[in-house]
Design goal:
Layout: H1 7-17, E1 26-30, E2 38-44, E3 49-54, H2 67-76, E4 87-91, H3 94-97, E5 101-104, H4 115-118, H5 122-142, H6 159-174, H7 182-191, E6 200-202, E7 211-213, E8 219-222, E9 229-231, H8 234-245, H9 268-279, H10 286-309, H11 325-336
Antiparallel strand pairs: 1-2, 2-3, 3-5, 4-5, 6-9, 7-8
Helix pairs in contact: 5-9, 6-10, 7-10, 7-11, 8-10, 10-11
């Protein structure tokens, strides 16, 4: 049995609502790597496959894990320069699998999650992957939301203040222990909120292991749109930089270890320069966004830690999630006083 995915119930739903979509016996397995929403590859006995996404089991934080938003933004971006998997359908009825879910195409390629997987790339390929990764983010932020039916996808006015409030509420919902420096980091962020530039479509968790890289070392599809909205695009950039250059110092490789400078990946600073040149914007306020990225990632990690303690996670890789929270807080506080990216 696959946790969170009742294949008999799914079979009955498909027969009733989408006859002919997938005939024959179904099998499924959890795709490893994700630590929030659950992702499964579902196969039919005639060799076809597709991807199903649903929220995590238990302790689902308010406003998080919204399948309809994730499905909507991916469907809307299907005709743009931003590569996304093709979407099939959304099921909003929690009676089928215990939570809403959606189905999308299974895109071929590689998801790089560890230094073991990227170690053989070499400098030239590592640079090519990094360049296309940051270029796709710039392309996303250049998309006009109203042109693809997403004008009402978020409220850019007051975005940063609401984000701080939202993630503080998520933190309160996950509090089970004392977290040294967390409240101080939050207070410093609140006291120094920058003025946002033009709003854009924000992915919310953009990083190397949230994309599929094709055989040509270009991004074949951007995944995990659960936190997408309209808002300040520099929140994506700040969190991207945390993933790119801050996580090697965290214990246990709990988040990602795929980006190792020794492999030949460019520096975060070089990628920020490339992004700034592509979009002709000023990044002097980026340290605040890096600090906010640390805060947000610390809150997310604490929520996952709470679910793992309660036995509500599926798959491996959760043992050290609780260990990264305070180090992330420390990095966030350091970023606020830093003059370098």
């Amino acid at each position: 049995m696959t946790p969170g995915l009742d294949l008999a119930s799914l079979r009955a739903y498909l027969d009733a609502e989408h006859p002919g979509f997938a005939d024959g016996r179904l099998s499924a397995e959890v795709i490893a790597g994700g630590k929030s929403n659950l992702t499964y590859v579902v196969r039919t006995d005639d060799g076809r496959s597709w991807i199903l996404r649903r929220p995590p089991l238990g302790h689902v934080l308010a406003t998080a894990h919204d399948m309809s938003r994730e499905y909507r933004v991916m469907t809307a971006l299907g005709g743009t320069r931003v590569p996304v998997p093709g979407t099939h359908f959304l099921c909003s009825d929690p009676a089928v699998l215990g939570a809403p879910f959606y189905v999308m195409k299974n895109v071929g390629g590689v998801v790089y999650r560890s230094a073991t997987e990227t170690s053989g790339l070499g400098s030239e390929r590592a640079h090519a992957i990094a360049d296309t990764l940051i270029d796709v983010l710039a392309d996303l932020h250049d998309v006009d939301p109203s042109a693809i039916g997403l004008a009402d996808f978020g409220r850019p006015e007051g975005f940063l203040a609401r984000q701080l409030s939202r993630w503080h509420k998520q933190l309160d919902a996950s509090r089970t222990r004392e977290l040294d420096g967390m409240d101080e980091l939050f207070g410093a962020l609140v006291a120094n909120v920058p003025i946002s530039g033009p709003a854009a479509i924000v992915h919310g968790d953009y990083r190397l292991d949230n994309v599929i890289v094709g055989a040509d070392d270009r991004v074949a599809a951007v995944l995990d749109w659960e936190m997408a909205t309209l808002g300040d695009p520099l929140t994506d950039l700040g969190l991207f930089l945390v993933y790119w250059q801050n996580l090697a110092q965290l214990p246990g490789g709990a988040l990602t270890s795929a980006v190792d400078p020794a492999i030949g990946f460019p520096t975060g600073s070089a990628l920020m320069d490339r992004y700034a040149h592509r979009r002709s914007i000023d990044l002097r306020s980026l340290p605040w966004y890096v600090a906010f990225g640390c805060f947000k990632l610390a809150v997310i990690s604490e929520g996952i830690y709470v679910r793992h303690k309660a036995g509500q996670t599926v798959g491996a890789g959760f043992d050290h999630m609780g260990d990264v929270v305070v180090p992330l807080v420390q990095q966030g506080r350091a970023a606020l006083t830093s003059t370098e990216l």
